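Case study.
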Amino acid sequence: MRYLPLTDTDRAAMLEVVGAPSIDALFADVPEEARLAGPVEGLPNHASEMAVERHMTALAAKNLAAGSVPFFLGAGAYRHHIPASVDHLIQRGEFLTSYTPYQPEIAQGTLQMLFEFQTQVARLYGCEVANASMYDGSTACWEAVTMARRVTRRRKALLSNGLHPHYVSVVRTMAGFTEDEVAYTPPALSVETDLEALAAAIDDDTSCVVVQYPDILGRIADLAPLAEAAHARGALFVAVVTEPVALGAIRSPGEMGADIVVGEGQSLGVGLQFGGPYLGLFATREKFVRQMPGRLCGETVDAEGKRGFVLTLSTREQHIRREKATSNICTNSGLCALAFSIHLTLLGEKGLRQLAGLNHALACAAAERLSRVPGVELVTPTFFNEFTLRLPRETRPLVRALADRGVLAGVSLGRLYPDGDGRENGLVVAVTETVTAEDIEAYASALEEVLA
Amino acid sequence: MTVNPGGWRPDAPKVEAGSTLTYTGNRALMLEEPLIFEIGTTETTGVDFSPLPFRGGVGGEQDGALRASDNPLSQSSPLKRRGPTDRLGGLHRAVPIGLPGLSEPEAVRHYTRLSRQNYAIDLGLFPLGSCTMKHNPRLNEKIARLPGFADLHPLAPIDTVQGALAVIHELGHWLVTLTGMHSVAMSPKAGAHGELCGVLAIRAALEAKGEGHRKTILVPESAHGTNPATAAFAGYSVEAIPATAEGRVDLAALEARLGPDVAGVMITNPNTCGLFERDMKAISDAVHAAGGFVYCDGANFNAIVGRVRPGDLGIDAMHINLHKTFSTPHGGGGPGAGPVVFSEALAPFAPLPFVEKTAEGTYRLVEEETVAHRHSDSFGRMTAFHGQMGMFTRALAYILSHGADGLRQVSGDAVLNANYVLRSLEDVLDAPFAAAGPCMHEALFSDKGFAEGFSTLDVAKALIDEGFHPMTVYFPLVVHGAMLVEPTETESKAALDQFIGALRRIAERARAGDLSLKAAPVEAPRRRLDETLAARRPRLVWTEPGPA
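After joint prediction, the assembly is written out as follows.
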């Protein structure tokens, strides 16, 4: 009971003040038949810190940590080196154990950090404004589609075939309930994007076109023509970025005309964490700010004229606007936003560009080395730090075989697209600064072995 | 290039002779801190990289940074000789981004100084009603950071992540055990996302029965704002359920409203007035008899955990805020986690993915690929990947630490602490529902009895000067000038006594009309902030100051 300060003496004295004979008597409003007479059956009684740590450590030991082997997985979650100071700083109790900054006079630390974060995200994405975070990239993507509906008063979203299939699933699931129309076909294992076809498909009912950049296969392309095509028909152009480090090397979606840019921020500061918690990023044009979902931090002054920060424009939000809110989101990803912001501040523009350059150079090296393995073909000649290979066989069993040889080789397209259609031989390979030359050689040799 | 070439500092005051202001604007340990855009430069970095493992970078640059002017290199073997060809297809980011960098010592100092402007549970009592600000055990932080959990890719081969799937399965099992429900969906990312999960499952179940025409969800006026927002987000229209004079759902009025257009109800229990809904089972029976489903907002499950199982009250779906009941840290506004427990009737409609234990004792992950064969009723997917793993490890460590006996004591102490606050202050603060009996985990007061012109806001701001975080104010909406105090079970009697003494004195000043209260806070890093200005002329990002 190490987390409970009350002693039995305290409890007796307090019950005296309350005028109740026992703690159980305080639950008198619960109908008798719904009250448990004793501890819940099945769950063991309390355990020492040592015992809990032993149990949890044993479970952790049943996993193969990414950092313990040559590691090449991406597809929406990337392993980057996180400076030690990031984790130290986010564990400061004043950040870790604080709440949503509803009382700004004693939450300026969180609020100033959010203001800095919003500015960093807006600049990274090439947009005018950004919010204080969403749950993750996939939910931010759906929120962008609903925002486009509010802005355009149209209900048809065109999704590029390069959008992460989990993001597509989230959008399709939600659209099925909100009666939005979603057009999407999965990608072929090909260098050809569908950007021209999307431009041709935009009509007067289209609310938005959603394109991932770099896309699920790692492809990158100039988005400006599609943005222009969308604008010409009164639709919004939404870009999705699952790898923010890419924007240290390639043009931002905002520069190419995106109206809303959303994405996953996990790459910076947050870590892999088996898929969560992650960090949804959301940026747009200033003129759409009142249609944005999520918390926004804004600059103001206090009663003495000193600069300070507050949560603002909350008449968009559920706690004020209830069923007319722009979103139902409440708790978001505050601490992950802090980790992202610290990591990006440590990098700075110089460090981000170096990091992006290293990622690209290593990915180029890996792509060339792996595509020299007999039977392996590089599907995507241009990319940032992630590319797609076509192997001579189904890649799901190959990934398992490579794991048995101590190489986590990539994400099989057969896992992401279970219905096959030629994609089952595709393998998405991500290469970050954490990969060494030895890792690439180990991968290539293991691949040669399993394909032999 | 610097981001802030002029070295502009917004808060450096002009200090005149005889002024009591300091030159820096600091006051001893109360430290002002500029923005990163004002102190950082785009040439500074706090990160060193290992050199490329082969000679030359892209474009021959040693530092690896890409430049638009780079010339493609030869196609020769990169690992042996030279850097690889740039494969960016001409999409180089040529223009400056404007991201300031700080060296490590500067960054550590910047964020440490910012942290000191925050109130936190680690500093003192944080009685924010409905938010459950309880102590966050540090063992749980240590567990979540084990590389075997923290350094796992969500799409890693299933046989390399058996321990992670075991955590999800084990936590889910204990959530089902504690709630007496049938099954659980683990993927929702926070409470409101869990609400959405529950309401979507209700809608999917109704549509499967051919009752998709039910388009209304009933929500009490006292509900969290997320409830009506969620119902609307899921495509429902929302109608309010009236409350009785004693702060509970009016069962007769609810029964009168039920009918063939009602999909279900969303009820918070214990409710936001800090009261248990005595008629919960009768409400559930009535809703079921009328063909609807019962959603329970589990934000306040911490009041009854280990003592009452919502499954025994006829609930069909309930989210559990792991960051409330099971003490994962709030982190200044997330991340949370909102698993949803389901009744047998709704279980088939739960979202993907989910974890299954096989007959051999291994774990499998049911994703899209198996829908056609195994889970065809699922309403779909709510998020990429599998939910908030980092919160699951913490919550599981918390549940195992407390165990069945400890969790029963947790809810007992939480309710005792709230009643102690209620009874210690009801003579100076109006407690609208206190006469009817004990409260649950939070004590609700109103502004009745304050002098003309004195408000709940004044009381809240005065608590700041006393070194406390204020309670939740102006919520629930059904009580005028509401003050909702949730002390939680992790406060000692001594801490409560000090808080009660401080709040008593402030309440007496508000009743007496002590004008000095209107100035509060005076001791905080900032005085009251101009929220109207912030909303009227939104400044959401930093911009370079113009020439002076």
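Observations recorded in class. Residues 334-370 of chain A form the longest helix (37 residues). Residues 84-343 of chain A form a domain with the Aspartate Aminotransferase; domain 2 fold (CATH 3.40.640.10). We will return to this complex in the next lecture.
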